[in-house]
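Protocol step 4 of 5: obtain the predicted structure for the target chain.
Materials: sequence only (see below). No template structures provided, no constraints applied. The aim of this step is simply to have a reference model before the mutagenesis design in step 5. Sequence pasted as it appears in the construct record:
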Amino acid sequence: MKFKNKRYVTRGINNAVPLLTQLFLWQCIDTLNCPKDYLQVFKCSMYDGMQKIIHIQEQPEYTKEYLFKTDTPLFVGKIFAIDDGEHSTMLLAEEY
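Step 4 output (structure tokens):
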């Protein structure tokens, strides 16, 4: 089963993405109700003062959009979560 192993975040995620947002992204993966691809993509942006997150995977194709208010700083950028079989790692796209 994908994403059921030890989880790690990179220094970039730790420094740039609020912890509550990180936890929300892991929850999006955990509650995915279709087979999980090894690569999960999150496109994060701001919309009307709120955090907007688009969660995407390629196989099987899946897209879901979230929009919510948060007291934490808003994050803008692309995040990958990769399951390599031994661990799951969340990283900024530019760290790939």
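Step 4 remarks: The chain has one domain: 6-95. The longest helix spans residues 19-30.
Proceed to step 5.
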